[in-house]
UniProtKB/TrEMBL annotation:
<keyword id="KW-1133">Transmembrane helix</keyword>
<feature type="domain" description="Cytochrome oxidase subunit II transmembrane region profile">
    <location>
        <begin position="1"/>
        <end position="91"/>
    </location>
</feature>
<comment type="function">
    <text>Component of the cytochrome c oxidase, the last enzyme in the mitochondrial electron transport chain which drives oxidative phosphorylation. The respiratory chain contains 3 multisubunit complexes succinate dehydrogenase (complex II, CII), ubiquinol-cytochrome c oxidoreductase (cytochrome b-c1 complex, complex III, CIII) and cytochrome c oxidase (complex IV, CIV), that cooperate to transfer electrons derived from NADH and succinate to molecular oxygen, creating an electrochemical gradient over the inner membrane that drives transmembrane transport and the ATP synthase.</text>
</comment>
<keyword id="KW-0812">Transmembrane</keyword>
<dbReference type="InterPro" id="IPR008972">
    <property type="entry name" value="Cupredoxin"/>
</dbReference>
<dbReference type="GO" id="GO:0005507">
    <property type="term" value="F:copper ion binding"/>
</dbReference>
<dbReference type="Pfam" id="PF02790">
    <property type="entry name" value="COX2_TM"/>
</dbReference>
<feature type="transmembrane region" description="Helical">
    <location>
        <begin position="63"/>
        <end position="85"/>
    </location>
</feature>
<keyword id="KW-0813">Transport</keyword>
<keyword id="KW-0679">Respiratory chain</keyword>
<dbReference type="GO" id="GO:0005743">
    <property type="term" value="C:mitochondrial inner membrane"/>
</dbReference>
<dbReference type="InterPro" id="IPR011759">
    <property type="entry name" value="Cyt_c_oxidase_su2_TM_dom"/>
</dbReference>
<dbReference type="InterPro" id="IPR036257">
    <property type="entry name" value="Cyt_c_oxidase_su2_TM_sf"/>
</dbReference>
<dbReference type="GO" id="GO:0016491">
    <property type="term" value="F:oxidoreductase activity"/>
</dbReference>
<keyword id="KW-1278">Translocase</keyword>
<keyword id="KW-0479">Metal-binding</keyword>
<dbReference type="Pfam" id="PF00116">
    <property type="entry name" value="COX2"/>
</dbReference>
Length: 230
């Protein structure tokens, strides 16, 4: 999760987020190179006393500054499109979870099971256990198996919400009357935090998301206990 004074992204916990981090570094390097070139040209133009009579009318340089940006845009667009298609793939998900946004909490329903669902409320500050994170902990976590394709169906019951977990590279709008879909794979066990990312009213800041990834056998035990309690 994020920590104070952090400037970069959270550590990636899914293949999609690793791809996004790689693309971010790729695009940022191109931006740095362009910025350096433009800064050099500005300094050279301001500081030099030399003149070039061909600089005002040169077919060759016009070709260069038209073709070069087009090539740079292609170098940015192709990796971007590849990642977009990768993130949109949903191939044989092992677990499907439906997340419904409410004012101001989330409810989860595991559609592969007959009666497995629960509401997830933020834990008030006074009820936090030692080591708990203020405004991020919930009374019920969304538990999923690690290294398994997960499909999340996102909708809302009242106003616009957004289900977002940065370290998993997932952000999907929850729209009333519409069912949106996202897919991800958690590559390691752990607890991953997110928040509603669409302003949804007075308590928008108080509906966190907690995803806990566990080995498959632990997930099966957890689901059995939840079904027994139901």
């Amino acid at each position: 999760m994020a920590h104070p004074t952090q400037l970069g992204f959270q550590d990636a916990a899914s293949p999609a987020m690793e791809e996004l981090l790689g693309f971010h570094d790729h695009a940022l390097m191109i931006v740095f190179l362009i910025s350096t070139l433009v800064l050099y040209i500005i300094v050279a133009m301001v500081s030099t006393k030399l003149t070039n009579k061909f600089i005002l009318d040169s077919q060759e340089i016009e070709i260069v500054w038209t073709v070069l940006p087009a090539i740079i845009l292609i170098l940015i667009a192709l990796p971007s499109l590849r990642i977009l298609y990768l993130m949109d793939e949903t191939n044989d998900p092992h677990v499907t979870v439906k997340a419904m946004g409410h004012q101001w909490y989330w409810s989860y329903e595991y559609t592969d099971y007959e009666n497995l669902g629960f509401d997830s409320y933020m834990v008030p500050t006074q009820d936090l256990t030692p080591g708990g994170f203020r405004l991020l902990e919930t009374d019920h976590r969304m538990v999923i198996p690690k290294e398994s394709p997960i499909r999340i169906l996102v909708s809302a019951e009242d106003v616009l919400h957004s289900w977002a977990v940065p370290s998993l590279g997932v952000k999907m709008d929850a729209v009333p009357g519409r069912l949106n879909q996202a897919a991800f794979i958690v590559s390691r066990p752990g607890v991953f935090y997110g928040q509603c990312s669409e302003i949804c009213g007075a308590n928008h800041s108080f509906m966190p998301i907690v995803v806990e990834a566990v080995p498959l056998e632990n997930f099966e035990k957890w689901s059995s206990l939840m079904l027994e309690d139901a």
